[in-house]
């Protein structure tokens, strides 16, 4: 089937295609309105070595190389399920990702918060920034590290505005619209196919009723090759009447023989030796 035939079939089933498209579009719009967008905020924090861990008057940013393993430990502690559940308990629907920022070579902690509302994203972001400093201080205090040698966390970037995330909405709308369109085209194709089959069956039935086809008897059918190979016997006419006993297939032949003998005899008499 050509593409033009498919378009003609869909055009003939417009009463299925048009409502189906309207329903699919309505469902897609409904999915867009039902699924809220996500509000995303991120923040980054940098680990700084303790004052007495460096030479007096040294630049702390020159001594960040050995703090990457410590940053991984802090990420694991802040990103634990117990701490995150406690933070988002009053803010359902909030998602939090805590990781070390791999785009930099330093001990940078990255916190990404995605919430249904901008206010919830801002609140959870502030709580996690505070919790990072608290967790770092608790870990070092348990090890008995002096306050002068303890690492500290320094906020580098904190988003003041949320970034609108609509990826889930686009996925939902695309899925609903595609499924609706596929079902519409499938239904129209099935109806068109059934209609063509019915029409074809009706035409065949009409042809059978109007022009009956006789079935030859298999016993009386002779192939052309048998006709060519089998000679057809010739029957001589059988005369009726009193002369039937003397007639036969050789009557004409005998008569011509007798005429020949009479001619020979007459020639001998007329021309004696």
CATH hierarchy, class of the domain at 38-163: Alpha Beta
Rg estimate, integer Å: 54 Å
Oligomer: single chain
Distance between the termini: 102 Å
Order of helices and strands: HHEHHEEHEEHHH
Largest sheet: 5 strands, antiparallel
In CATH, the architecture of the domain at 38-163 is: 2-Layer Sandwich
| Share in helix | 40-55%
Average pLDDT taken over every residue = 79
* Silhouette: rod-shaped
DSSP strand tally = 5
> What is the helix tally?
8
pLDDT under 50 segments (min length 5)?
213-231, 238-253
Beta-strand portion reads 5-15%
CATH fold name of the domain at 38-163: Alpha-Beta Plaits
CATH homology superfamily of the domain at 38-163? EIF_2_alpha
Describe the structure.
There is one protein chain. Helices cover 53% and strands 13% of the residues. By secondary structure, the protein is of the alpha+beta class. Among the domains are: 3-33 and 168-194, no CATH class; 38-163, EIF_2_alpha (Alpha-Beta Plaits). A hairpin with a 7-residue loop joins strand 2 and strand 3 (108-115). Helix 1 (3-12) crosses helix 6 and helix 2 (14-34) runs antiparallel to helix 6. It starts with a helix and ends with a helix. Mean pLDDT is 79; it is low at 213-231 and 238-253.
Structural topology:
Layout: H1 3-12, H2 14-34, E1 38-48, H3 68-78, H4 81-87, E2 95-100, E3 108-115, H5 118-142, E4 152-158, E5 163-165, H6 167-210, H7 224-229, H8 251-270
Helix pairs in contact: 1-6, 2-6
Keywords:
Alpha-Beta Plaits, 53% helix, alpha+beta, 13% strand, 273 residues
Give a short overview:
The protein is of the alpha+beta class and 273 residues long. The protein is rod-shaped and about 110 Å long.
């Amino acid at each position: 089937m050509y593409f033009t035939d498919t378009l003609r079939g869909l055009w003939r089933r417009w009463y299925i295609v048009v409502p189906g498209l309207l329903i699919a579009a309505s469902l897609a719009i409904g999915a867009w309105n039902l699924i809220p967008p996500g509000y995303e905020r991120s923040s980054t924090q940098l680990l700084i070595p303790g004052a007495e861990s460096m030479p007096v008057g040294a630049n702390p940013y020159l001594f960040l190389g050995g703090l990457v393993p410590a940053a991984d430990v802090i990420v694991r502690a802040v990103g634990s399920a117990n701490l995150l559940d406690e933070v988002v308990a009053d803010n359902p629907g909030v998602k939090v990702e805590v990781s070390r920022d791999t785009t930099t070579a330093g001990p940078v902690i990255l916190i990404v918060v995605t919430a249904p509302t901008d206010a919830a994203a801002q609140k959870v972001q502030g709580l996690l920034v505070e919790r990072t400093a608290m967790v770092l201080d608790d870990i070092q205090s348990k090890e008995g590290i002096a306050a002068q040698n303890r690492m500290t966390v320094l906020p580098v970037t904190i988003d003041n505005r949320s970034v609108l995330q609509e990826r889930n909405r686009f996925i939902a709308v695309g899925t609903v619209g595609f499924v609706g369109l596929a079902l519409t085209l499938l239904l129209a194709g099935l109806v068109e196919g059934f209609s063509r089959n019915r029409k074809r069956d009706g035409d065949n039935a009409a042809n059978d009723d109007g022009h009956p086809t006789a079935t030859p008897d298999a016993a009386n059918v002779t192939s052309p090759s048998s006709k060519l190979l089998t000679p057809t016997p010739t029957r001589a006419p059988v005369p009726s009447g009193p002369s039937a006993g003397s007639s036969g297939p050789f009557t004409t032949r005998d008569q011509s023989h007798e005429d020949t003998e009479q001619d020979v005899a007459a020639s001998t008499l007329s021309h004696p030796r």
